[in-house]
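Q: What structure does this chain adopt?
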Amino acid sequence: MSEVVFLSNTNIQIASGSPNGDGVKVSKLISAPLPEGAVLNGVVMDQERVTETLKLAWQSNKLPKSEVTLIINSPQLRANRVDAPILPEKKTTDFIDRETRDSEYGRFQNPITGWYVVSKDNKAKTQHVVYETAENDFVKKYIDIFTNAGLKLKTIHNGVQIATEFFTKQAKGKTLLYMILDGKSLVTIFFAEGKYYYDSTSRVFAQPGTPEFAREIYSSISSIRQFTSAQHLTETVKDIMFCGLTYNQVSQLANDIINIDSAADISIAQPPSGTSIANDPSQYPFFIYPIAGLRKINDGVSILTSSKQSEKKKSGAGGMKKLIIPFAAIMGVLVLVYAGTATFKAIKSSELKAIEQYINNSNTKIKVAEYDSMYDNMAEMGEIQGGVDLLDQYLNSYPVPDSSINEKIKSAAKKYDVDVSFDSYNATTGIFKITASSPEVEDINQFIAELLSMDIFENVDYTGYAIDSKGEYWQINVVCTLAANDTAQDAATNEEVN
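A:
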C-alpha cells in the first residue's frame, strides 16, 4: 500500500492503493482544500500552510507516513522523453546528461535530473525514457515540507507524463484526445493510432456549462487538428475523453460542441481495464493524477536521489577547499620567502644604486605617468567596446518582423482565402499578433497550419474563434512568436513531439 499526493492550485488530492498488473487498485481517495494562493502552478507560495494542510489530512484519515509519492504540474519541473540504448544505470544517466541541451534547463542555476524507463525494446536494444529536470532548491523545498509534516517523501514526478503513461494501454490502437481540467488549467494529451504524439497546457477562462467554455475547449481541439495537419497525419481527431468535470457537465459540453462540430464525440473518462476504485468509482475523472501515480514506475534514478548526490558533491567540494586553501597559503608564503632571500643575495649594492637613480629620474617618472594614463584609457575603451559587442550580439539575435515576413503571412492567407490584419508587434518578447477572418473555419485552420510549417516562427497559438455581429465571418486572434536568428536552425522535425 502506498500514498500518492497531487498538489493542484486549489486542493491536495491523495490516492491510497497499490499497483495491480498494468492497472492500479485504489482503496481510498481523499481531497483536502488548500488555502487560497498557497500553491500556484505547482510552486509553493506559503510553505507553512501547505505543511499544516498535509498534517491535518494525514491525521484525519490515519494514513501511513512512509513511501509517499508527490505528483505536481509545474514549469519548474520539466519532463522530456528520449530513446536511449539499454545501458546500466550510471551510463544511462551519463547518456541523458549528454543528450540534454543546456537550453532545456532554462534559468536553472543548479539543475538536477531524475529519470524512469517507460518501455524497452530488447530486440533493438533500446529503451524509452522520461527524464525530469528541476532546480535543486525547488526539490529541497518539497522535501522540507513533507519532513516537517512528518512524512517520508519517496519521489517526485511530473503529473502530465505520469497520466500519459497511465492512458497508454487504454489508447492502444486508437486515435484519442484526453483533456484534464484542473481548476483553470487544461492539459491536452494526444494519441494517434495508440502512439503518444503531443501534450500541451493552456488556461481556461470561461465557466463550465457555458457556450464560452465550449468555444475554448473547441479551440484546443482545433489546435490539435492543426498539429496533425502540420505533421501530415491522416488520422482524424474525433474521440475526446474528458476529466475534471461531472457527468452532467460533460454532457452539456458535448451538446454545445456538436453545434460547432458534429464530428467531435466528447465523453467522460472511464478507468482503464485492470484499474479498480473502491467506494465511489465516479470520482475517477477528478483524481487522474494521484491514481496514475499508484502505477508501478521503473525508476532509474529518482530526482530525490539526484538531489542527495548533488548535496554530497557540494559538501565534498567544500571539504576539499578547506584542505587546499591553508596548504596553498603556506606554500605561497614559503615561495615568497625563498624568492625574497634569493633576490636579496643576488643583487649587488651597485645595482641597487643604479636602480634607485633610474627610479628617481624625472624622465622616468614622466613616462610612468603617461603609461598609467594610457592604461586607464585603454581599460575604459575596452569596457565600452565589450558593451557595444554584446549589444550587437543581442540585436542580431532578436526576432524582427520585416516586409518579407508580412508578405509570407499575406501569401499564406491569400492561398486559403483568409483576410488578415496586423495588430501589433512586441520587440521585447518577439510576439507578433494578427487577426484572421474567413467565412469558413476550415480555411482558417489550413492558414494556421501553414504558419506552423514556417521556420520563421518559434510558436503559433490563438485565443479562440468568434463570429462577427452579422454571423458571416469567423474571426480568430493569432499569436506568432518569431524565431530568434541564432536559434532558427535548431528546429526539430521529430515524428514524436513533446
